[in-house]
Specification:
The protein is about 35% helix and about 15% strand. It has 9 helices and 8 strands. An 8-stranded mixed beta sheet has the order 1-2-4-3-5-6-7-8, sandwiched between helices. The longest helix has 21 residues, at about 115-135. It has one domain (about 10-285): 3-Layer(aba) Sandwich (Rossmann fold), CATH 3.40.50. The protein is α/β, with parallel strands linked by helices.
Length: about 290
């Protein structure tokens, strides 16, 4: 029996993108329910612009001088939308392992371009290091994570440990969690928008990739950021001697890479928790 012809590639992409878009309202509803039970946070400005701030979340029983590990999580939203407040549930698995968690914000297009967004992230790191020293919070090499555009920024920051030491940290990230992230700018469209962004392309910044352990999550049917971004990056990391695991979500869309943030029963929540736990065991006094 003759098989029906395969759907054109553009119709498949359109179908996946439509599914991801229609899935946003329930995704944000579930996230909002979880945010109601989140611990309080501090909002600290690192620059004069209203978008230049970060949120600091700490375990409820933590004291300022406790030697807790640090995690930085960058939110998604195509570098243009989203806010740290909306993505607070992503901090939960780190808080459960007694991390201090920081969620930065940054200025947005069209007022700024991608290089300025990266500069804002670096400014946030500098301010955070100063704040930690002034308040007696011990610094340590952090973990870093992000979803979608935030995963792109997290990858760049993880690949430049010198940015961290220049900012006052003892070292760059030891572990990086990247969820449905655009990691190969050469396959983004329109090409003209990204063709001159080599300094912001993680695929071209891999010289120090082996110093970091990597976990990538991505759905094969992602309609917003193609699965091959993580495929390309994973293979490039391995070629540079890095320890990298790519968790493929068969048939998964863009949002499936982030459901672990609010759903403890998500099939990938345990992998994320194990990855976080492997880097920094709970201090003996807080077990």
């Amino acid at each position: 029996m003759q098989q029906p012809p395969a759907a054109p590639d553009w119709t498949r992409k359109l179908r996946f993108a439509l599914r991801d878009t229609l899935g946003l309202p329930p995704y944000w509803r579930h996230s909002a329910w979880v945010r109601r039970d989140m611990p309080p946070h501090r909002r600290l400005a690192y620059g004069p612009h209203p978008r230049q701030y970060y949120l600091l979340l700490e375990p409820p029983a933590a004291q300022p001088t406790d030697p807790l590990p640090w995690a930085i999580y960058l939110h998604g939203g195509a570098w243009t939308f989203g806010s740290p407040e909306a993505f607070r549930p992503a901090a939960r698995p780190w808080l459960q392992q007694h991390f201090r968690v920081v969620l930065p914000s940054y200025r947005r297009p069209p007022g700024v371009r991608l290089p300025e967004i990266v500069t804002d992230c670096r400014m946030a790191l500098t301010h955070l290091a100063t704040f930690a020293r002034q308040t007696g919070r011990p610094l340590s090499a952090p973990q870093i994570g992000g979803i979608s555009a935030g995963g792109h920024l997290a990858a760049l920051l993880a690949l430049h440990p010198e940015w961290w030491t220049e900012a006052g940290w003892p070292g760059g990230p030891t572990h990086a969690l990247l969820c449905a992230a655009p990691l190969d700018l050469s396959i983004l469209r329109p090409r003209t928008l990204f063709s001159r962004r080599s300094a912001q392309d993680p695929m071209l910044q891999l010289d120090q990739a082996a110093a970091v352990r990597w976990l990538l999550l991505h759905g094969t049917d992602d309609g917003m950021v193609a699965y091959r971004h993580s495929q390309h990056f994973h293979h490039a990391l391995q070629a540079h001697g890095a320890t990298s695991e790519l968790v493929t979500i068969p048939g998964g869309g863009h949002l499936d890479s982030g459901r672990w943030t609010y759903d403890d029963q998500d099939p990938h929540a345990a992998a994320v928790a194990d990855f976080i736990r492997s880097a920094a065991p709970v201090p003996p006094g807080l077990r």
